[in-house]
GGDEF domain-containing protein (Deinococcus knuensis), 331 residues
Amino acid sequence: MALLAALVQACIAQYAQSNALPGLNLQALLGLGFNLLLVGLAAWPRVPAHVFQLILIVSGQLWLLSSALLFVRAEIPSATLLVGFLTMALFAFAWLRAPAAATLTLAGYLLLVGPVAAARPLDPPGLLMTGFAATLIWFLSAHGQSLHRAHLRNDALATLAFTDPLTGVLNRRSGRERLDGALRAARAHPQRLAAVLIDIDHFKRVNDSLGHHRGDEILIALADLLERSVTPQDAVIRWGGEEFLLLLAGRDPQDAQALAWQVVRAVRAQRLPGFPPVTVSAGMALASEAEGVPGWLALADARLYAAKDAGRDRVVHQGNRETPHAQAPPS
């Protein structure tokens, strides 16, 4: 926008030079330089947004004052002055609190109807419509900010409703909805849909020895690792307590098994400062192995318990369910 404003000021400067309007020419050249400076500031990330906005508001006030002087000198028509006032009002209501914006806008309007109109008559209908337009800008700005706050509240409520507040992954309720939808979508190829139920080994010992707040750190770290291990078509769900559920979609069974083992190895290799080594156990089931979501999850849960019974720190799945002591596939 600053670049567009610079282009407008360049055109105005050319017009002022060709019509022998020195005051307008000076204002346009200053505006051109200022807007080019704004382009440079916008490209500099160290300038905070509120500083940038304050610069625009102050410069808008100065521009309005200089335009009032040019109007009194008969170098610009009233329409140019009124448009400048509305631009200033728009900046004020967009970036300032309502009382400050209203005060600034009212002061500008009083300048127009007072000293400026006394020195050189303004178009009365134009002045009245400008006052109405400024009021409309205030109303639309307040309404827009109210809608924005409502959207933020709704987004926050939606986040609370569908995600786990500690780890940021899907909670059990939204996870169940995701499972139902994924199972319907994979009806033609249920063997390409896997659920991996993951449980942190000996998690109660961590909570008892280090405290629940330190246990929360492990949960957060595991959720982060799981999210980094999957693709956007998959899902990470906090199923409850120290249990997480991976929903793996569109993968061959061997690929799903490989990813489950990859997670187990990654957790084993991860070292969290101040914690003993952490491992997880996992049970994996394909949607094609059971009827419906309850049976599917029950099978994954049974295999998780089999992994625990087999010594933990492993995955039990279709390929090794009869021999849970089987070694992991090679890395």
In short: Residues 322-326 have pLDDT under 50 and may be disordered. The chain has two domains: 48-160, 172-320. The radius of gyration is 33 Å. The longest strand covers residues 193-200.
